[in-house]
Amino acid sequence: MENRVIEERYVETNGVRLRVQITGSGTPLIMIMGLGAPGDKWKHNYELLRRYFTCIIPDNRGAGGSDKPDVEAYSTEEMSDDILGVMDALKIEQAHVMGVSMGGAIAQLVALKRPEAVKSLILTSTYASPSAAFAKALGFLGELRGSVDPALLKQLNLWMTYGQYTQLHHPEKIEQSIAADAALPGPMPDYAYRAQCRACLGHNTAAHLHELKMPVLIAAGAKDLFMNMEKTMELVNGIPHSEFYLCPEGGHVHQWEYPEVYDSVVLGFLLKHE
Q1: pLDDT in tens, 84-99
Q2: What is the C-alpha end-to-end distance of the chain, expressed in Å?
Q3: What domains does the chain contain, in order, with CATH numbers?
Q4: Whole-angstrom Cα distance, residue 270 to residue 263?
């Protein structure tokens, strides 16, 4: 019987207390969220995936119900250790691991540090090394955070993350996103957002991509303003035997713009490697 119950736990690891949601049944699937958002943002996608897998959905440090250390910068290194600590606390010896954007950067390090524990890896709208354009965008967003009207900054962020087709033809999806985000738990302090931005900017696994020998799916939006195609191809060309899915009109959040197609591709990949 399908398990639709969402269990909430708190895990003490690596100097922080992390909120973790668990739902579904089957092989563990760890879902790592991106910049500035709690794990709850995976809801669009785990509704399907939990029918087949036990979805483990942590809030990264700085977000949601997890601790938010007041420091200048976090790092994807320590955030990957957070995820490994969650796996240890939940006694997970092996899992599928997926991450979006910053979460994909964290997922790469989880797989590099403990390859035997990663059954397969899904990297969505992410990168091995930041582009100059991405660095500039995060610099602007970090500086504007706390100095401009939050609603205006939200609109700017959505303009940067959603594809133009969605903005022009399906504005209701963006309005729904704004309404849903307003109800998310644990408001994020400005300092924590900037600390996560700096974690993104400090990430670089480009020289180690060839070490990822497990099955890997790379998913990208062709109209992603954050992750240009050059950075996507750095992953595709750098990871041996990786599979590649490109959403033609998708932006940085194509998994929410076109969830049915994305979920179908992801589910097919996961089941193939069960």
Answers
A1: 999 999 999 999 999 9
A2: 19
A3: 6-272 (3.40.50.1820)
A4: 10
